[in-house]
Design a protein that fits this description.
The complex is a heterodimer of chains A (138) and B (113). Chain A has 138 residues and is mainly α. Helix content of chain A is 70%, strand content 3%. In chain A, strands 1-2 form a two-stranded antiparallel ribbon. In chain A, helix 1 packs antiparallel against helix 2, helix 1 crosses helix 3 and helix 3 packs antiparallel against helix 4. By secondary structure, chain B is mostly helical. Chain B has one domain: 3 helical TM bundles of succinate and fumarate reductases (Up-down Bundle), CATH 1.20.1300. Chain B has four helices and no strands. The two termini of chain B are 31 Å apart. The chains are: A mainly alpha (138), B mainly alpha (113). Chains A and B meet through helix 1, helix 2, helix 3 and helix 4 of A and helix 1, helix 2, helix 3 and helix 4 of B.
C-alpha cells in the first residue's frame, strides 16, 4: 500500500508575474479597496477606546473626567476625526455591499438590492438616533 | 490555515462588520468629537456609570468589542496578504491577527465582565 518508489507527476512551476508591493496605487478603485480594508484598523481602535472608556468609568469620576480631558487634546481630535472618517466609509461600503452578500427572496420575488441597502441605512439612522438621544438626554 | 476554518472566521468578520457599521460611527462621533469640542454635553458620570455597568450593557459591549477585533483580524490579515504581497507569511499573519483578536477579547472580558 505504501510504496516509496512511486513516481511524481511533473508539476510545472506556475508562472506568476512578480507584483510590486504598491500595485494598488495605480488605480482609484484599488486605493478605495485597500482603504476599505484598512478601515478595520479604525474599528479595532474604536474597540480599544471602548475598553479604555470602561476602565475609566470603573475607576471613578476623576478618571472619567481625565479621560474626557485627554480626548480634547488636539492630537487626539485629529486621530479621532480620521478614525470617524474611516468608520463612516466602513459603514457606507458595508451597507452598499450587503445586498450582494445577502440575497433575500420572498417566494419568487427577489428583494431588490436598493431595498436591502435602504433597510440597512434606515436601521443605521435609527440606531444612531437612539444612541444620540440617549447620550444627549442622559 | 485550513480551508475549512474560513467560514468560521468569516462569520466573526461579518458579524463584527455589521455591528460596527451600525453602532460605532455614532458612538465615536459623540464621545470623541462632539463632546470634547463642546457641541453636546455628555451624560453625567452617575448616569454613564449606571448605563455602562448594567449587566446587559456589559454583555452587549463585550460582544461589540470582541467582534470588532475579529472583524479587524480578518480584514487586516487579507490586506497584508494581498496588499503587501506577503504570501509566504500566510500562516504567521493569520496567527498574529486572530491571536491579537483573541487577546483583545480576553482583555475586554477581564475589564468588562
Amino acid at each position: 500500500m505504501e510504496s516509496k518508489t512511486g513516481y511524481t507527476l511533473h508539476h510545472p512551476k506556475w508562472h506568476r508575474d512578480a507584483k510590486p508591493i504598491f500595485w494598488w496605487v495605480k488605480r482609484w478603485v484599488y486605493i478605495g479597496f485597500i482603504f476599505r480594508e484598512l478601515t478595520s484598523v479604525a474599528v479595532a481602535y474604536s474597540a480599544i477606546l471602548m475598553i479604555i472608556l470602561y476602565r475609566s468609568v470603573q475607576s471613578g469620576p476623576e478618571a472619567y473626567a481625565q479621560m474626557l480631558e485627554c480626548l480634547s487634546h488636539p492630537v487626539m481630535l485629529v486621530i479621532n476625526v480620521l478614525a470617524l472618517g474611516a468608520v463612516l466609509y466602513h459603514s457606507i461600503t458595508w451597507f452598499n455591499l450587503s445586498p450582494k452578500a445577502m440575497v433575500v427572496r420572498l417566494g419568487d420575488w427577489r428583494v431588490p438590492d436598493l431595498m436591502i441597502a435602504g433597510g440597512n441605512y434606515a436601521g443605521w439612522f435609527l440606531i444612531s438616533a437612539v444612541i444620540a438621544a440617549a447620550y444627549i438626554l442622559g | 490555515m485550513k480551508k475549512s476554518n474560513d467560514a468560521f472566521w468569516w462569520t466573526l468578520f461579518g458579524g463584527g462588520g455589521a455591528l460596527t457599521a451600525m453602532f460605532v460611527p455614532a458612538l465615536l462621533f459623540l464621545f470623541t468629537i462632539a463632546t470634547p469640542l463642546g457641541w453636546v454635553e455628555g451624560p453625567s458620570y452617575a448616569n454613564i456609570a449606571w448605563l455602562l455597568m448594567h449587566p446587559l450593557t456589559r454583555i452587549v459591549a463585550f460582544g461589540l468589542i470582541s467582534l470588532s477585533f475579529f472583524h479587524w483580524a480578518h480584514r487586516f490579515r487579507f490586506t497584508l496578504y494581498d496588499g503587501l504581497q506577503l504570501k509566504h507569511l500566510f500562516e504567521l499573519i493569520a496567527v498574529i491577527c486572530y491571536g491579537g483578536a483573541i487577546a483583545g477579547s480576553l482583555v475586554a472580558a477581564y475589564v468588562l465582565l
